[in-house]
Specification:
The longest helix has 53 residues. Strand 1 and strand 2 form a beta hairpin. This protein has one domain. It has four helices and nine strands. By secondary structure, it is α+β, with helices and mostly antiparallel strands.
């Protein structure tokens, strides 16, 4: 009976403590791995979302800028030259971070319909779209300095870049008359979902837009 009780004795206090410690270490490791995977998944989701945001904005700007200076009537003034004579002067202002352009989409001889007098610019970290006399609409936030950039090209073969000059830099009226292509770059920084990582998640989209009303013309 004595030998039977010795063989059936339970765990000692040391064994229980050791087992508890090993269990806690294992659970901690599992939690750390799971948390890292969750943060990585959340970061990937934010990155994908940011790419969708900048891509959507680029698509919108491309569609609208493609129709810049369109005028089947007399809503816009025709350039007398000497640079690029005969084009419609629908590009009102062109800087590295701001673009103001017009087009008579309805063909009614006025520029008061939606989408006919547009401005894209940045105020602080917000990329804005201004349609005529309506209030500015923020379409992207988290735009860093230089996050909205326009580059302008003429209709030469190969195209020659038109460089803004002055302070602040801007294309002259003669340069604006010769713009046939615009390269747009949009960058945005989104908040990192990891509370221990303050590095923002960057996003960038870029495209080159040919202004239809001018790219088909021979200067």
């Amino acid at each position: 009976m004595a030998r039977s009780r010795q063989r059936s004795r339970g765990f000692s206090t040391a064994e229980v403590l050791a087992g508890t410690a090993l269990t806690m270490m294992l659970m901690t490791a599992i939690y750390s791995v799971q948390r890292a995977q969750t943060m990585a998944f959340a970061a990937q989701n934010v990155y994908s979302e940011s790419q969708n945001v900048t891509r959507t904005v680029i698509d919108l700007m491309t569609r609208e800028l493609r129709m810049a200076t369109y005028d089947p009537g007399t809503a816009l003034t025709t350039s007398p030259g000497p640079s690029c004579p005969g084009v419609k002067q629908g590009i009102v202002e062109a800087t590295p971070s701001k673009l103001h352009f017009k087009q008579d989409l309805t063909g009614d001889g006025s520029l008061i319909s939606p989408g006919e007098d547009l401005v894209y610019d940045v105020l602080g970290s917000a990329l804005r779209r201004i349609d005529g006399s309506a209030l500015p609409v923020t379409i992207v936030t988290g735009v860093p300095a230089g996050g909205l950039n326009f580059r302008y090209f003429d209709g030469s073969n190969p195209p020659v870049e038109l460089i803004p000059t002055g302070t602040p830099p801007s294309l002259t009226s003669s340069q604006r008359d010769c713009v046939t292509k615009v390269r747009i770059t949009v960058r945005a920084n989104l908040t990192n979902p990891d509370p221990n990582n303050s590095t923002p998640i960057p996003s960038m989209a870029e495209c080159e837009v040919a202004i239809r009303n001018r790219s088909l013309s021979n200067f």
